[in-house]
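Supplementary Note 3. Input sequence used for the single-chain structure prediction.
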Amino acid sequence: LQPRDAAPPEGLLPAMVQTLHHSAPAHIPLGPAHAIIAPMFSSEAGRSVGALAVWSELDASLPASDWDKKVLALLARHAALAADNARRQEALRRAREQQAAAETFAAMGDIAANLLHQLNNKLGVIPVRIEGIEDKSAAALAADSYLTRNLEAIRASAVEALDIVRESLTHLRPITLTAVAIPEAVNHALAEIAIPAGIQIHRRGLDALPPVIAGRRRLALVFHNLMENAIAAMPEGGEIIIAGKRTDDWVQITVRDTGHGIPPHLHDAIFQFNYSGRQRAGKLGFGLWWVKTIMARFGGSVQVQSDGVSGATFILRFPMADQATQRFD
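The predicted structure, written as discrete structure tokens, is reproduced below.
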């Protein structure tokens, strides 16, 4: 057997790939070397998901014993079971995270609905009272522009406060999970964002992607928040690259910017509900928390990659949908 750091003999990797189509270990001559290769058959996937190889540069004519093949087949079987178990654990983790997010949103929705009702009662009366003052004191208001301006400012603030609460409440309501096209959601988000002149948007590989399991409005909100954050990170201009690819039963989308990046020690903190990063006027500052929580409700995930210097890349993973997919979260 070779030392651990020895390079595999030429032809081993193609031979391992070829072995994936078989069910039993094979003894493969590789020029002066030889190898025993056992496929890692996954009963869960219904196919081989890898291969386990042992090679030697001793005389390639030496036969491999049945015992050697049985031992390697047993090891390959255990490796396949470990891989299956890891996939099941990951699926269970995602399901629990999705359930926790749904339960959290349901509780928050109840609280927010009660809050909105109370605010409607308290704030909703302000514009009505202002109209009454304007009707009864028209002459005084006409003679005093200061009073007129301030009454209008009070009315505008009350209406804006109600709009903010109502907008936030919509994010807490149940999501209809269905098959959604990624380009449609990206276009919807871009239509609602003011793109500065110095920012260029590039889209790569999105049109060829299959639909994903998501909520239409919430998916647009995910891209909206990520692109707004990217724009804010590039005050002097730059590029936003939105790219996609399919991997097995998943669709992966990356949103990358050329801004100043996010320090590694903040990669977890930026997704927290109480993260006190930069906030824009009129916004609640929950952008990335919304993104993570909504992605969990889709059954997907989000993570960030950045060295804190040369931009940031947000990686979104969505479960792929068939056209019949539709359920409520």
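The CA atoms of residues 269 and 275 lie 6 Å apart. The chain is about 45% helix and 20% strand.
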